[in-house]
């Protein structure tokens, strides 16, 4: 039917074209083109509709499959799918998702917790150090890591059994929990090792020395928590710990390296007899790897005059000069300044403290004579440090008194500073040295007072003329109630005994005035002067040292 009609239309078109001419033929051609384009558009639209229909069918199949899967899950949970409306099903699905999320979080927590103490484990601690390191780098605020080790834990296990050993670790963790502050992070690294990430961001004075003092003081507070016996069922055990303190540089980013530095400090703390707290120092760490080379270099410095002495003023409540403390210095030719804690420790370990101590005491006397001659101040005193190994040397009294006699320095103007560790387990030789030095008129000072276990008992034992309050308590006087309480107790005690009190580490006027009000008589710190060579110190007090001195 359509074909004859089409042929008729073509014939009619041809006839019209014959009669109407070429213009009508062109018009007809254009009309044909328009019709073809419209047909093509309609065809493409039909194809698009078909594709959309296919997608809807696919989506519908997926929805039906998801619904069947959901019904299966609900049936496993004991909830028939036909007994719930769709909104109720959605609610249950959300509950299920929350439960799964909780289980995943619980699994993560279990992976980050120590099963015995329920403290964060090593992995969690490393993650926290990474977070804190990134924050420290942005804010330039330091933090500290305290590495804590239980002393002789193997002996506890061997003596009382592993069950008691586990209870001891739980007791340690509880005492640590009771000590740390809200912003700190406590972890059990494994075995008998614990760590604390200490927040230092609230301390306004951001100097490294101040932060180290605060961290050291906090470590001392932790140590104080272990003075009492631990009652473990029917067994009472004396648990001792050692603590390594590392105030972390803001540019440090390797958590394992940060932990190693704290571990190195802890090892140093273990090597000390009683004050089992040590603060990490870069030079200390370096010495830990090549200390024999430092020992050889120290011997060269001793032979070639490479050591020197600086003097720091000790003033009274009116800031008048009353004495000076001699402090050893060593400028290494390639490593720069090596701290006295480092090279004195090396001298102790390599048994050269006798020779080194005598040399440093002679340098102290020479510098004091030059300073005394320049200042012409009657009653000016010299304080010099004596190590534990020197006190155990039978010849110490003879050598020191001989040097005083040769130089003409009156022994009554000399104070020897002794640490608590020097006299806690003193021998008959140590006692003989102390008695001979006292008899000659030399005064004794108990240095770093307050940081050890038995500070108060030592006063009766040693009967010192002077007590030097450790700088960690002084620096934290305004921010730590514990530090202020210690200083108040010491100040109150001195009123009942013939003792001079010297506060070390006085760095600002407010601290100076607060200490004066508490009854402290003498002061030492950067507020008055840093340790200086003799000529510079004399110039500060209006005197001059001749070039030949």
Mean pLDDT, all residues:
80
Radius of gyration: 41 Å
The description of the largest β-sheet is: 9 strands, mixed
Secondary structure: helix percent? 55-70%
Distance between the termini: 135 Å
According to DSSP, the number of beta strands is 16
User: DSSP strand (E) fraction?
Assistant: 15-25%
Please state the overall shape, judged from the principal axes of the Cα atoms: elongated
Q: Which secondary-structure class do the elements indicate?
A: alpha/beta
Low-pLDDT residue spans: none
The number of helical runs is 20
Name the descriptors.
single chain; 549 residues; alpha/beta; 9-stranded mixed β-sheet; 5-stranded mixed β-sheet; 20 helices; 16 strands; 16% strand; elongated
Can you give a write-up of this model?
The chain has 549 residues and is α/β, with parallel strands linked by helices. Helix content is 56%, strand content 16%. The protein is built from 20 helices and 16 strands. The protein has helices at 2-20, 22-76, 86-111, 122-139, 153-160, 162-179, 208-224, 255-271, 282-304, 340-349, 353-375, 388-391, 396-407, 420-423, 428-439, 455-462, 471-475, 481-494, 509-518, 534-540, and strands at 143-150, 185-190, 193-199, 230-232, 235-237, 241-248, 277-279, 307-315, 321-332, 336-338, 381-385, 414-419, 443-449, 466-469, 500-503, 522-523. The strands form three sheets. Strands 8, 9, 10, 11, 12, 13, 14, 15 and 16 form a nine-stranded mixed β-sheet that branches. Strands 2-3-1-6-7 form a five-stranded mixed β-sheet, sandwiched between helices. A two-stranded antiparallel sheet has the order 4-5. Helix 1 (2-20) runs antiparallel to helix 2 (22-76), helix 5 (153-160) packs across helix 6 (162-179) and helix 9 crosses helix 10. The longest helix is centred in the first third of the chain and has 55 residues, at 22-76. The relative contact order is 0.06.
